[in-house]
Amino acid sequence: MLRLKFWTEMATRECSARKDGSTLQTWQTLMLGHIAMLNCACWHPKIKEHFLTCSNDCTLRIWDINHTKKQIQVIKARDKQGRKTAVTTCAFTKDSKLIAAATVDGSIQLWKSSGPFVRSTRQHFGAHQQGSGASCLRFAHDNQTLISRGCDDTLKLWDIRAFKRPVNVVTGLENYFSGTDCVFSPDEQVIVTGVSVRKGQGSGNLVFFDRELKKVNQLAVSDSSVVRCLWHPKLNQIVVGCADGKAKVFFSSKYSFRGAKLCVVKQKKRKDITGEMLLTGPIITPHALPMFRDDASKSLKRKREKERSDPVTSRKPDPPLPGKGAGGRVGTGSSLGAYVRKMAAIEVDKDQDPREALLKYAKVAEENPFWVSPAYHGTQPKPIFQEVEDSDEEKD
Fold first, then answer.
1. Through-space distance between the first and last CA atoms of the chain, rounded to whole angstroms
2. Which residues on neighbouring strands pair with residue 183, listed in sequence order?
3. The model scores a pTM over 0.70
4. Which of 144, 130, 228, 128 is nearest to 181 (CA)?
């Protein structure tokens, strides 16, 4: 056996070959990791320590988080002519028996997770437009239904048992990003994907479809493109990532649980002002030495007295002028009592009998009743007043 070494600008490659010239291992298998941009990663649905990655170096690699220095397995993606092709996204089935990957040449390829990985077990080389590929792959829990979000502005539903043609197709869904997601709802009756938009030409939307890819609803999210989306199966909330760097969470007040609802219903914490009052209030030290006494508290009383004496600051009303009025103000006369009598127009007559003063208005009230009499005119009996007798008649 001959040991051959190759040096390139990227890395040192080492291959083992037989004497007949057949290659046993290639340089991609011997590399300890990806040597190009990483496009996608996903966790193994059964083994928590394992995860899958795909890259522009035309490989998929299975890793163990406990042994990160080298991958467990390397899967090489090839196009219809057998040439290497970059991988744009990857996914496991829910039972972890199959690995799916989308490539730049527009194909979707499937491998058994148990191996061998020499060539794909199922493939569709015309799944999406040549040179665009798919930005996302998602399996349903039946492990037979697959949805793919293409960079050719399409969303396709597949049955991997009949992989020659898609079950349903939706077109006209703009996609300017290689990472635009498509997801199932928790009950897998609704499919959700994001739509891209150019700056200043509208809003990025989140579009909802049923299992037959008929449009159910559309939700405007932001002025920029909607790229990432996740429908949490337990919280029943949708997390959306936009191209402008913002992340938004959508929830239902009736059907969602915890998550963002804990932040919404949480009351704003009241600010404790007790400490501030203690810090900003005056410190009273009546027995302090003269050099340490505060002059502000000592002069506070004098300041208040001065403000009280100022009619403008204290807003004291103007008293009436003595004597005649002047400058638009009314005078009080000789005294305050005279001013009150003048304003009330009261004439005091001490020799007048109060009863006679009232009875002199009886005839006027009877002829022209104004207040009480009209209300009782029909039912009130005729008033009879006691006549006044002379003092001589009383003696007789």
1. 170
2. 192
3. no
4. 228
